[in-house]
Every structure is written in C-alpha cells, then in structure tokens.
C-alpha cells in the first residue's frame, strides 16, 4: 500500500511556511494530523480497481484544525479577496472566514479587499474594508458580492507590495481559474521574497469545472435557478403551436449546469454541451432532428451550455480574465432554428431565454450555504497552520488541501461515457450523436 | 341622482340575447339584480367631487348570479378560447369557468379551443378539446397555457360558422386588446346572423392597461417576478465597480409593471415608462444624470418599460396582433450607456436583464389565483344570463359588466400626475424631467 | 348631493393641531386639498343604490401631501412605535415613514420606540433608537420587527410624559385594535394637556378585520404563506388512506385569511370561519358530513380560522392585549375527528398543521411592499400637516384619513351573504349550513 | 490489495436470481461489470489510513446497467410500492423507475401498489394502479405520495402470494427502516418458495440515518424547508423582548436535519440532537445557559431534533411501524423554558414551531430531483439484472448495491467528534457539554 500511496500521478504535496509551534486555541480538541490523507475519488469513485491492480492511487492531505498552528492569532492580520463573475455563496464564504478567524482563533484584524485584485493595486485607490462578525452577520442572505469583484489581473509585485505593507499574513483568494492562477503567482512572488504570508484559495466556478474539485460552491444554487428558466421555456414552448423553448445556461467548457438542470426539470428534449460536438445541418443534425420532434409532438425544449457548438464560430480572441471569447450559441441557435422552420414551411416560434445574470446573482441555497461554511472554516484552519499555495477542495463528505498548481492544469469536463451524460441521454431521449456523418 | 346616473360619458349598457326565463339552478340563493350598479372609480376613486358638483358619474351593471337565466343548462354547450402572449392566471380562469359551468349550473359540455382563434378556423385542423373538472383539476398550478394560444386574427365569418356548427352557445374569450377586438367582431357577426350565442370576454393584459379595468389578472404575479430580476440586477450593479443594472420589463404603452416592481424592490434609481418622455443626451438627459449618480455612488439600477423611449427609434410597422413593433429600448440603453461611459473614461459595465419570458410563464400567485376564480365565476354568471358583447371588470372589491366596445377605445395609462408616479419619483429620487430642454 | 355628503352615519371628520402655515418643501408640486373626499365603498362598492335612493353616503378626507403643513421640518422630531403580534410589512412601513420624513420633508430626527408601548415607559429602561435611511435601508427584506414589539397597554400619562420630554412632535403608531385604542387614549391625553403632538395610526391586522379599512398590510402575504400550508395538508391527506388535512389559520373574529387561502389553493373541502356557526354532531354536523366525504373520496381538507367554533368552548377570559382568549379549535377538531373516525370504524388519520408563527414572520411580498410604502408616505403627509387622532386607510386605489375612534368601534366581518363567502361555498362544495337543526 | 478487499467487516455480497443470459436492449453501450467495486467511504472518506496500515477496507458492487440481464423485458411485469411517512422525492423515484423500465428496457407493464404494503394485502381491497410514462409525467412536481402510503407491516406470505398471483417479477420497495425490514422478509419468503422475483429497495428516510447510505433522497429538500422555519423562529425571537424561538425538526435517532438546517440558517444558538445528551437543570444545564444568553443578548434560537432529550421522558412503547414512541421534546422544552423564565422573573416568551408536516410534504428540490432520477434508474438496472435483496445506495458521486441486511443492522448517527458537529458547535457557540455534572 505504501508504494501505492507515494507513486502519485499529480503533485499532491502542499507547501507550508514552516513548522507549526504555536498551540492552537481551538476550543473543541478534535485535531486533524498532517498525515491524514484522503483518497482522490476520481471521476466516479472507483479507485477499487486500481487498488486491486496494485496501480498507484492519489490521495490528498486532509483539511481540518491542526493542534499546532503557524501564526500567533494575536499578531495576525488576514485579508479576503474575491474575483471574477458573481457566484451564489461568495458572501457566505467571506462570512465563514471572518467568523472562523474571530471566534475560533481570536484573529481580530480582518480586511476585505474591494473589487477583486484591483483592490490590491494602490493605483486604483480602493481602500480595504474592516470585516467583523457584526459587519458580515447577514451578508449570506444577499446575492451578489459584498466585497465587490472584478475581472482580470493586476501586477503581481504591486499586489505583494500591498500585502507586505499592510502586514497581511494570510490572504484568502476566492475565485476561479484566472483568480487561482493569480493566487499562484502571488504565492510564488511571496516565496521568492521570503515573506511569511500564506495564500489560501477557495475555488469558485459556477460551471463546476475546476480540476480535483468534486464540487464548487454556488453550483447547486445555479442548477436550482436554472430549473426555473427551463420550466418557463417549457411553458412557452407548449403554450404555442410548434413552440421551441431554448435556454442558454452557463458552462464555458463544461456542461455540468446544463446537464443537471435538464435532469432536474425533466422536460428537456435536447441538451447541448461543450464536451459533445453536434452538427446543425444534415439528416442527423440538430435542425432536422428538432424539426421531426416538433412535427410529431408540437413542441420542444433545448438546453444549451454557452460553450457548446463553438466550432460553428470563428475564433474571437480572449477577454480581460484571459478566457476565450465565446460565440453566442443561444442567438445562433435561435436564428438558425427560426430560419430552418421558415424554409421548411413549419409555422412555429422560438422563445429564447438567457438567464445567466439572474442565476448567478441570487443568494446561496441552504445546501450551498452549509458547504460554504465548511469551505470557509477549512480555509481558516489551513491558513492559520501556515499552509500556502493551496486551495480547499471537497469530495466524499470530506475536505482536502490541493496544491493550486495541480488544480489549474486544465479544466474538469463532463465525461460523455459516464453516468451523468448517460442519465441525460436517457432523460431527454436525444440521439447520442447529432453529426453530419455518423 | 337618477339624472346623474343616466348621463354617462361612455356607453355602459350591456347587450343581451333576450329575456331570462329559465330559473337559475344556483344553490346559494343570493342573486344580483340587473338594476344593481357600481360607480366607476375613475383614476383614484374620487367621484365625490363630481357628486358634490352634481356632475354626471359613471356606473356599470354589477356582475353576479341572476335569479333567472337565459340558457337552459341541459341544452347548453360552451367553449373557451385564449389568445395572445402568455400571462399568469390563464389556466386559473379556464379552470374557474369549467368548474362554474359544471358545478354551479350543471352545464356538462365545455370545449377548449386550441391555440387561440386559430382553433376556430377549421382550415388549421385543430380539434376542440373536452374540458371537465377532472381535466382541469390541477392546471392552475402550471404556468403557460393549457389550451395553447396564438396571436393574430382569423376570418370572423369562418369562426362564427364554427361556433354555429359546433352548437356553441357561450364563447368565453380570454385575451387582450386584439382578442377583445376580435370578440367584438364575432359578437357583431353573431348579431347580424341573429344567432343566440353569447360572447363574454375576460380581459388579459400583463401590462394592466385595459381601459375601465382597475386590475387585470397576472399583473400582480408579474410584478412579483419582476422584483426578482430587479434584485439580481441590483446585486450585479453593486458587485462590480461602477456597475449599472438594467432591467427591461413589459409595458408596451404603460409603465405599471415597471412602476410597481420598482416600488416593491426599493433599489431602483431610474424608472423609464412610455408615459413620461426622456432624453438621453444633454446636461439633463439620462446619460449625464446616470453618470453623475454612478460617479457619486458607485452603482445604479435602471428599470425600463419596453415601450419607453420609442421616440428614439424610427417607426417599424406592426406585428401579427396589430401591435406597433417596438424598438428594443433595453439593448439601445445598454449600448448607449456603455458608449457614454467609455467616452467619459468611466470604467464600468452594464448588466442587462430581459426577463420577459420568465415573468409571463410562471403560475399565478395566490392573489391572482383568487382574482381569476372570481373572474371565471362572474363570466359564467354573465354568459348563462345571456349577456353578450361584454367583459368582466373589477374595481373596489366588486365585479362589473363592461361593454367590450367601451373598453377597447384606447389603452389605460399611468397618470404622471397621480399617486403612483409620485411614489416612484419619491422612491427613486430621479429628476422629474430628464429632457434636453427644461 | 351636498346634503347627502353631510348626513354621515359615522364620524368622518379628522382632528388637527391647528392651521397649516408652513409651505411644504415637497418637491413634486402635486398637492391634495383638505376638501378632496373619497366615497366609502362599503361592503361591495355598491353605493350607487344609496345615491339613487338619495340616501346618505359616507366619504372621507383624501390622504396626500398638503401645500401647507403644520410642522416646520427643521424643528420636528418624530417617533415610530409598533405593537402587537408580528405581521409581514411592519418593517416596510417603518422604512417608508423614515424615508418620507427624511427625503420628502427634510425631517432628520426620527426615533424608533423599542418593543411597542413598553418603549414609552421609562420604567422598562428601553432607550429609543436613532432611525436613518441608512439604518433602515434593507429592513424591508426581513420578516419580524426591526423595532421589536410587545402586547398590552402602558400607563397613558407616562407615555405622554415621555413624548413631551423627548420633544416628539409626531408619533406614528403601527398596530391593531388594542394599539389603536391606545393611540386614541394618547391622542386624548395630548389634547387634554394642550400639547402640539400629532398621533397618526397605521392599522395592522393580519386578519384584515379593522373597520373602514378595505385592506390592511400583511394580509396578502399571509394568504400566500397560508396557501403553502394548505398544499402540504392536501399532500398529507391524499398520501394516506382516509387522510384528513386540517389547517388552522389566523382569524380571531373574521375568516378572511381562511377564505382567501382556500380560494387560492383550490383543494379545501371545508372552510370554517367565526362568522358562520357550525355544529360538530348530528346528521348535518361537520363530523358526519366529513365522514361521508372521506368514505366517498378517500381524503378531505379542512381550513379553520382560529376564532371559528368558539361556542364549543367555555369562556376563558382575556389576554394581555385585552383580546378574548380563544379555545384551540384546531386541537379540538383534530381530537374530535380522530375519535369520531375511531367510533365509526373508519381507519384514517388527521394531519394537523398550525402554521401561524411561520405565516406572520415572513417578509412582505411585493404587493404588500408597495402597499406599505404608500401607507408610510401618506402617514408622513398626514403627520406633517398636523392631522391627528387618525389612521391611514385605503380603498379603491386611493388613501384616506379615518378618525381612529370611527375605526375601533367594532371589527370588520366577512359577510356570509356576500361574494367572498359565496365563492368559498362554490369552491369547496361544502353545505351552506352545518347545524344540528336545519 | 486483493486480501484487503476480501476481508470485509460487513457482508457486501449481493444476492441474485441467477445468471444473466438476456442481452440488454440498453441503447447506450456503456455497461458496468459486476466486478466493478466502489470503496466504502466510511464516516469521512478517510480510508487511506486503513490502506496504509494494510487494514481491510470495505467495497461494494457498483450499480449500473449490465450487458446481460436476467429478465426478458417482453415478459416482465414490475410493481412499485412506497411505505411510511411522506418524504420529498417519493414521486420522483416512482417516475424514474417507470420511465427507466419503459424507455430503457421496454418493460410496458408496471403496477403501482396503493398505500404501502397494505396494497399487497387483498383483504384491504386496494387494486393496483397502471403506471405509464404519461401517467407519471408531472408527478415529480407534486409533494406527497402519488401512490399513497401507509405504516406498519402486512403478513409476508400474503404479500408474496399477491406478487406471485399478479405475476410481478420485480418489486421496487421505497421506504425506511421498517419498509426495508419488510422487503428483506419478502425477499427471504420468495427465496424460500424458489420464486424468481427480484426485490430492490430504495432507501427513504428524511432523517438521513440509514446505515451505509451517505445520502438519502428528500433530506436536502427537508433541510431547505427547515431553514425557512428557523428564519421565522428567529424573527419571532428578535421581534419581542427576551424572545426564544424554538423549532422541532425531524430526527428520531439522528440530528442530521437539525445540524444542517442550523448551519445553513446561521442564527441558531443551540442545536439539540439525539446523539449528544444534555441536562435541563443545573448550572451547566440548558435552562441556565439559555437564561444567561437571553439576559445578555435579548433573544435566542433553539433547534431540537425530535429524538433529542428522550431521557427526560418515561418509555412509551412503540408505534405501528415498530418505532419507539417519542416524548414530545418540543412541548416539554417550551413549557420548561417558560416556567424557568417565570421562576427567574425574566419576562419573555417562547415561540414554538413544529413544521414537520410542512417539511415532508413539499416537492423535491432540483438537487433531490436529480438524485431521485439516478436512484430510480439504478434500481431498474439492478432489478432487470436479477439482483435481489439489495438497496441502491450512493456516495462519492457513484451508486452501489448494498445488501438490505447490511443496511438495517442499526441506524446511522451523527458523529459528535466529526466535522459536522464541530461545525455546529462553532456556528452556534453553544457549550460542548450541557450536563449536570461536567
């Protein structure tokens, strides 16, 4: 077994600022040892086969309060920053971090960085904001971002200057792929300078597509909101002759939101995701299959992830966060379906709904609320123990430390051969392949 | 007083098929006499002044069950049609009519016309559907339209042929301005042919802009849903530097939805409605006022009715329902604000939400549910009594019969000098006039 | 007509502190004159008959901003108190009053009285709280009471001493029957002492049973919440053999909540209200009728207002607010139905839901939110104009001033011969009379 | 490794009716082999330690479609039964099973057993009901139980007679501990008789306390609903002087609902669960700690699981399902707190909410909806493959087959030394021990 545990396919060793010599003030004496590790559950938790075949399996350091910590709470000042687009639960994580620092460790100086990394660049004149349990008491009941957010990078040396000058000892970075790349660069710069500042990431992606993270906060809330839009689109489709409801959901590189929402709502006839290519034209293409469906049943419901069908567009460069600019597949489908119906003499209409801003700006639902609270608490435990360059991840009801570098190698994708996609195909009844040539 | 009551500014006399000679089977012997009349409450219920000045006031025939009815329930067959766009409560009204016919009067033959007036044109091959209490038991819990709807007219003689051939004695028409025009034409054609078919309208407009109707069903639900979008837009606006949330709501000729939603949500800084013109440019135009607000406060929330600011567009003709095609004020504002901020070197962003399809396709809320039940019951009472060419209206907790011709003369508008708009101005703090020249 | 207007059945003349000599700073110059009056719409808005018969009709002074006001804003200090049980919208009214005083009139000193009239009794040591627009910005999103509430009276001279000592010029009293009696006593004591303090009431009753008030805030929200409980009880009833769902709703002396909720939900088979007596036993009593229903259909849903069936209990005295202590009709019905079924060998079960605390503590829905905003604004206009001893009421889309003494004579009741109860009987199909002897 | 996998602490081998010789008609050729196994993730997924120490770990057979199946779809008839109390998602599971049988395997004869095991006892005269995709199309949108449910056992031989006579080949049993015990007895009787009938369980417990099941359906929905009650109780507590909100939630033997709801809502000061004993009296008992909290902060919120504090009651026997009858801890706390406050001269009030019927009868939320769909599909795959005497369980994003006997040995409990309880203690700030003697 020992061998199995050491032969890792990816780097799972977490960086730290040094040995922990301060006894933890943690009230409930249930500590987690650095040696506790959690098997990585892979795509579907089926590590057993690897174990039986004596193949290496991956495990990560368990998150949790350490008996000894690195930072003396009395002398510690922490800061929290969140970047990128809105995501349900942002405020919950901020609140959980503030409460954890205050009540669990007695760290009384916590700063909120305004508007993402921009708030770490003095040139933009955004003063940090004092965060206390009183100040954050009710923020989890609000959607949006209490701290404010922004997209795009800021000069790393400038940001580290700010942290150093402000005497920040732990920086909590809540954000997605771009943010985590930034956090890693900040971590490297800190290391280079020999500063004793811990950088702890909390992964944020409403698409749920960060590698090595079975789940990210806000996803469950987003799916719940998306279901409402699907219901409305279904009502629109059935309320008119040959009506087509079309809903574009988030999912730049992965179709998790679209797949889950379609499964939950139960009326979708087509789910289009980035991981599964499809053609519009041809006898097996979407337009023909859709036309047949509508002629037979009088209506149809299509759910499309924003990153689906991008081969139908020319390359459009990248946005401020460094993400590939996407063609608007919702508008394209709306227009192409309308034109196709017209050409075929099928009187019908497409009702197109793009609910993105509505989905991402609502408060976290209770499930995400609990999850965010755990994420925040574990982030605090990691930071106080001097862990750095890591993010808090979760699977199988437990929380782990994952090196940021390991998580940002590439995105997580929906597996077209896995249980989730299979369930979608069963639920929709859509053809497995909608391509010009079989 | 008698004089006062007779000197009416508008026609309030309701047409009927003939004297009522069949005793009503109505179980609760609380009948309404044709002579009962209800004062019209005008814009704000202030008829007192007219009374004091001995000026004529308007009253309408009270709705309610009559002691004697025109149609013998055993030999009566009724049909229900709904037309135009979706509106919360459509199914509730259908259900209430079916239940009222069955349980109150014992009329067991009720037909549902599929897809609006199209279902009365045999050329389209849409068979009517049997409606029973069992079939409609749960439809009020669904949004959309159980019967299906469509826009646009069908040939009136053809529709009346269908009614005659199918032996329909009461036609319930649920719909807006276009539908009611159609219902009036059907009524006139029936009269011309000397048929004994009653035509009873139930006014439907999510905009709440039908004349002589203090309230229309679905409006309250729509406002409630719109509030959710405003909350999201506010979260988007505050979650980013210099963020502007922009929500386009329904309201082709009137700003009732926009005004109520803004009042209920409480964060809007600008409400733009068709009844109050505004300029974009100039020192007192929207763009400059908005820029100032955003520079001072960091964010702003704009609510715009779809029919506002139409003078900014060229004339675009009319759609299938005969409604004026509107320029897309939401997209125009989004683009113009973005360009203005860019030109002024103000780094910010506009988050634009167009929730129309989401708002109109949800189930009716409890308040609208109760209202729809009353509308349906009163429509049944009117139809069974042989009243025709009328619609069911409501004000001051009572229901009345209004001749369709009187209600479709023109649309109802929000009064820029009334209580509602005053409350909006107080709540938003927006300037009373945003025009190029004062 | 003049004669008609003067011959009033009840006192409609509003007291005031004196002539208004301060020009209003109101920004939108749309003032309401004291001479504007609004006809009282009675039970069903059918004043026409009275007019025709030359009988006296009642009208009230229209609410709204006056061109001249009594208090100089710069020297005015106001206080707000809310008493009695929780009611959705309490916080909305407080917020609207604060904003109206600040932004419309420039009154910057507004105090919140803590925990009802208790906060006006220095013996209890409850300091008043500073209210600013910033402090009340988001309180309308929360249920409960921001100020805190309490039941029961405090010594009137002590309370007036407090108002005088604190230099309060306008006291806004939000509350129900007991609170309004208290407000009237305060008003009389102020008058007796010759103080210049205005007392303005905002009627609060979730039961919607205050005389001369067509609608009170929170009622619509309460009905919406009650509908959820009815849905659950219906699910419980149908999910088991011979299941009876039983829901007790608020309504001490009136069945408005029960009637509306039953109409909105649509599954209730029995609605029991204080205004309509019923027997349990006997061939026409509830138990037998219910048993028959359950044997035929397998389940039943009963909605009972808390004040219904009180003749089944001995007299139990009065509570702290002076209200009659009610027997628990929900528990009685649950037990009696269970015993009856057992005695008759009918295997079934009663699922009893008492959702009162859940219903009354939620935030106001958008409809109530708008209504509260108007109430608050009109209360401010009345107070600034020196009106006193009045409450703000509303009907037919307008707002009026009603002398408190007129409103607290007795409670408003549901009319068993009116449209609402008729609709309930039609919707439930319950017998009109469930009495031991016909 | 092989050794590790075989040395199991509990029985993990699933019974089956015989070898699978019918090729599966499954359309998407992604089959799961019987040899695929999933490691059991234990309390917190930390199997790594056992692996490192070469200790035995537990794994279960992976659920999923098999390449060969046992039953020929053309000749297969299946039945579905659900028993016990209502639980969100009951209808979703039924729907998923029906759809899976029809669309995935072409099994067209599916029967619904009415009112639990009672429907398998002909003496009660409850005919089975035909289940088709059309019949179950929308049932997932309703709470309650479409099939009806009941508590308590029926004679096992009689039930097996019914299955045999009706030619049922697969029986799907949805239910909790009692139901699963019944399913196991049915399975043993079938085995004894040598019948070829598969028995597949879907575990149902809103308490989430079935052993070897990381999650059961309805739990997430229940937590979400419970949060609403906590919000209301908090509003009640803060809205009055020295107010105590008290909410009793489900959890007969485990505190999962109470713990999650308290974490999600964020205002609870005390969470009382069956797994953690507490005293009422004494200087460290609940009453004194609560009094101190209320005196300091003016209000408090208590969440209590129904099975907590049972040592405060005498033993009361067992109910129809064989469950221990519980003392009503909610009522006891309400009364004892009230008496304690009175005795201490603390004027305050306890607002007690028991929302159980409201929580369990709502429709499943989207998260549970997706989960139920997977459960139903996997149950169908297991049944068609002739697996029997098993239930479908899930952890770590995958689904497994667990022998019923292994799951019903005892209940799953919240670990007072685990992450969940630790998070609760941190969130509430309540003392770790509230006992008479430390």
Q: Short description, anyone?
A:
The structure is a homotetramer of 438-residue chains. Helix content of chain A is 35%, strand content 17%.
Description of the molecule:
Four copies of one chain form a homotetramer. Chain A has 438 residues and is an alpha/beta fold. Chain A folds into two domains: 2-216 and 364-407, Rossmann fold, CATH 3.40.50.450; 219-361 and 417-428, 3-Layer(aba) Sandwich (Rossmann fold). Chain A contains 14 helices and 17 strands. The first copy, chain A, has helices at 2-6, 48-52, 90-105, 133-136, 156-165, 177-193, 219-238, 256-265, 286-297, 329-343, 356-360, 366-384, 404-407, 419-428, and strands at residues 15-16, 22-23, 37-39, 59-62, 68-69, 77-82, 109-112, 129-130, 170-175, 198-203, 243-249, 270-272, 299-305, 349-353, 387-388, 390-395, 398-403. A nine-stranded mixed β-sheet of chain A has the order 3-4-17-16-10-9-6-7-8, with helices on both faces. The first copy, chain A, has a four-stranded parallel β-sheet with strand order 12-13-11-14, sandwiched between helices. In chain A, strands 1-15 form a two-stranded antiparallel sheet. In chain A, α6 links the parallel β9 and β10. In chain A, α5 packs across α6, α7 crosses α8 and α8 (256-265) packs across α14. The longest helix of chain A is centred in the middle third of the chain and has 20 residues, at 219-238. The two termini of chain A are 45 Å apart.
